[in-house]
Amino acid sequence: MTIRTAARGRTAATAAAVCALAVALTACSGTTKNDAKNDAGGAAASSAKADPNAPLKKNLKMAFLPKQINNPYEKIVDDAGIAAAKSFHGTAKEVGPSDASASSQVSYINTLIQQQQDAILVAANDPNAVCGPLKQAMKQGIKVVSYDSDTAKDCRQIFINQASSEDIGRSLIQHIGKQIGYKGKIAILSATQNATNQNTWIDFMKQELKDPKYKNMKLVKVAYGDDDDQKSFQQTQGLLQAYPDLKGIISPTTVGIAAAARYLDDSSYKGKVVLNGLGTPNQMRKYVKDGTVEQFSLWNPENLGYLGAYAAAALASGQITGAQGDTFSAGKLGKFTVGKDGEVILGKPTVFDKTNIDQFHF
Ligand code: RAM
C-alpha cells in the first residue's frame, strides 16, 4: 500500500523510491503535494485549496460502480458518464455486481484501488458497507464520488444527487394523494432494505403523510423487491393479496415500478389500484398507453452520469475539493456549486404521463 501510494504521485520519482524503502512503515506521508492533500480524505476533511481555474487533467481513468449492472436505469447513467469522460479525453468504465445486496460492491472497490483509478463513482447499495474500501481509496489519492445512492458522508468527497431528496419523497405522496382522492390504504414497493436513496425518500414520504390533508390515507406496508424484477413482481402480488382494498402503490425504483406495472396490467386490479413512483419512460410507455399507469416521475439519467463524470474530473484536477461553495463547470450542463455535506444537485424531476411520454426516449 505504501509503495502504491507513492506510485500515484507520478511526478515524484525520488519520493517514490524513498517511500518504497520505507515499506515497513505503516504510512508514507509527505511524499508529494498530491499525497499530502489526499491524506485528509473524506468529504469535509480536505484542507487543500480548490483552484477553480485549474484545467481538467487529460487521460483521467475513472470507473462507475452502479448498484447492479443489469439494471437498465443504471446502464443509462453509466453509459452517459463513460461518454462524458471521452469528451474530456479521459477513460471511464462500468464494473459492478449483478445483485444489489449490501456488501456486493466491496470486492469491486478493492480491485479499482489496485488498478489506481483516478476516481471511483459509486451508487451505494448500503451507506456503510462500502466505507472501509472507499476510505482506503481516498487515502491513496483516488477521488470518490457517490451518485444516485449516497454512502455515509465521510466515505466520499461528493454526492451527486439526482434531485432534492425531500422533493422526490414529498412529491410522490402529493401525486398519489391527488390520484386516490386523499383517501385509502397505500403501500410502498421499494428496492433493497439498505438503499440510501430509497430510504431517504421514504422518510420524506412519511413526513409528508403527517400533513392533516392525508388524514384519511394510511401507509400500510413498505415491501422490498430488492431491485430484482421477479421479486418485485411477487411482492406486488403479495401486497394485493394482503390488502385487497389497497388504493395505491408507490414504487420509488425503476425496477420495482416496471415489475408492478406488469403485474397490474395482467390482473383484475388494472385501472383500480393506482401505481405511481419513479420509472424510465422506455420501460413505462406501454403501461401509460394502455391505462395501467397514469403518471410517474424521473430525472434525466443521462445527465446524472454526465454530471458525475465532470464532478469526478473536477475533483481529480484540483478544481474542487468537495467543500461547500466550490464551483465547477459540467460541460453542456453548465456550472454547479457544491452544497452542504458535499452534495451537488442535478435538478428537478419530470412528471411523465400520456401527454408527454413520447417526447422522452430513455
Ligand atoms: C432504480 C435504482 C436507483 C434509483 C432508481 C429510481 O433503478 O434503485 O437507485 O435511483 O431506481
Brief synopsis:
The chain is an alpha/beta fold and about 350 residues long. It is built from twelve helices and 14 strands. The protein folds into two domains: about 30-160 and about 300-345, Rossmann fold (3-Layer(aba) Sandwich); about 165-300, Response regulator (Rossmann fold, 3-Layer(aba) Sandwich), CATH 3.40.50.
List keywords for this structure.
about 350 residues, alpha/beta, Rossmann fold, 2 domains, 6-stranded parallel beta sheet, 4-stranded parallel beta sheet, 12 helices, disordered N terminus, binds alpha-L-rhamnopyranose, signal, Rhamnose ABC transporter substrate-binding protein, carbohydrate binding, Bact_Solute-Bind_Prot2
Written description of the protein model:
- This is Rhamnose ABC transporter substrate-binding protein.
- Residues 1-29 form the signal peptide.
- InterPro entries: Bact_Solute-Bind_Prot2, Peripla_BP_I, RhaS, SBP_2_dom.
- GO terms for molecular function: carbohydrate binding.
- Pfam families: Peripla_BP_4 (PF13407).
- This protein has 362 residues and is α/β, with parallel strands linked by helices.
- The chain folds into two domains: 31-161 and 301-347, Response regulator (Rossmann fold, 3-Layer(aba) Sandwich), CATH 3.40.50.2300; 165-298, Rossmann fold, CATH 3.40.50.2300.
- The protein is 38% helix and 17% strand.
- It has twelve helices and 14 strands.
- The protein has helices at residues 2-8, 13-21, 33-40, 72-87, 106-114, 131-139, 165-179, 196-209, 229-242, 254-265, 281-289, 301-316, and strands at 61-65, 91-94, 119-122, 143-147, 158-161, 184-190, 217-224, 246-251, 274-277, 296-298, 327-329, 335-337, 343-345, 350-352.
- Strands 2-1-3-4-5-13 form a six-stranded parallel β-sheet, with helices on both faces. It has a four-stranded parallel β-sheet with strand order 7-6-8-9, with helices on both faces. It has a two-stranded antiparallel sheet with strand order 10-14.
- β6, α8 and β7 (217-224) form a beta-alpha-beta unit.
- α5 (106-114) runs parallel beside α6 (131-139), α7 (165-179) crosses α8 and α9 (229-242) packs across α10 (254-265).
- It is elongated, with a radius of gyration of 22 Å.
- The two termini are 42 Å apart.
- The model is unreliable at 1-45 (pLDDT under 50).
- The protein binds alpha-L-rhamnopyranose.
